[in-house]
Amino acid sequence: MFSSRGPSLRELTVQALSSVERGYDLLAPKFDHTPFRTPDGIIDATAETLAGLGPFGTGLDVCCGTGAGLTVLREVCRGPITGVDFSAGMLAQARRHHPQATFVRADVRALPFDRSFDLAVSFGALGHFLPSERPALFEGVHRALRPGGLFAFAIGEPPPVTSIAHWMLLGFDGVMRVRNAVWRPPFVMYYRTTPIRALEKDLTAAGFTVGTQPLAALGRRRDGTPNCWLVLARRSR
Q1: Spatial strand order in the sheet of 59-62
Q2: Number of helices and strands (H, E) in the chain?
Q3: How many CA atoms lie within 13 A of 110 on its CB side?
Q4: In the chain, pLDDT over 70 holds for what percent of residues?
Q5: Collapsed DSSP state (helix, strand, coil) of residue 10
């Protein structure tokens, strides 16, 4: 799963027993050499799709981590791009990769922006928010966008119940729930708390007009269902 430049088992254990913020501060220098980083295929497919919907002016990467989403913004935005995250360690890595971008350290459940961006993206972050926390996140993104602005993020189709992947994700979430029941501080990271219909409902409640588009470059399952969708949430006013 990990390259020789990735974290050791001991380092991962220390991270998993930390808070989300502290855990990512520790993981940041080696994060790009783990499977947790959003794959380049998703980044490239998202950039290709958004290029057909743009160009855009200013861009915001929500929970930017080491800056994978800023690669997309750099391709499709004509104006300044900004990354926001609450991990100082992740932001330090992102600055190294994207020196032309602006970075803000903040809790994205209380984004400090008002009608500042034309496009917002996010990659691999939604599992770090409990369902009860999503409204504050989505309302903040809505507030950060200008009227007509777009919030885009990729979401994978859940693996079928007959697949190994389904049971691996179920097991991971189960382990995390046990860990958080017996250990403090909690480390919120769940793979099965973000079904697309629930996300659409929360986005609509936050004021977005929501649509989806298959990321065709990532292929389809045997039943014809796309492997991955791009959620497109637009602020209408």
Answers
A1: 102-105, 81-85, 59-62, 117-122, 145-156, 228-235, 208-214
A2: 8, 7
A3: 4
A4: 98
A5: helix
The residue whose two tokens read 């992102």 is 94
Cα–Cα distance measured from residue 138 to residue 147, given in angstroms and rounded to the nearest whole number: 15
Tokens of residue 227, six digits: 């492997």
Structural domains of the chain, with CATH: 1-36 (no CATH), 37-158+195-235 (3.40.50.150)
Distance CA 23, CA 40 (A): 23
Q: How far apart are alpha carbons 202 and 196 in whole angstroms?
A: 10
The tokens describing 145, both together, are: 């966008």
Q: What are the pLDDT digits (tens) for 33-91?
A: 787 788 999 999 999 999 999 899 999 999 999 999 999 999 999 999 999 999 999 99
Burial readout 35-45 (b: 16 or more C-beta within 10 A, e: otherwise): ebebeeebbbb
213 or 192, higher pLDDT = 213
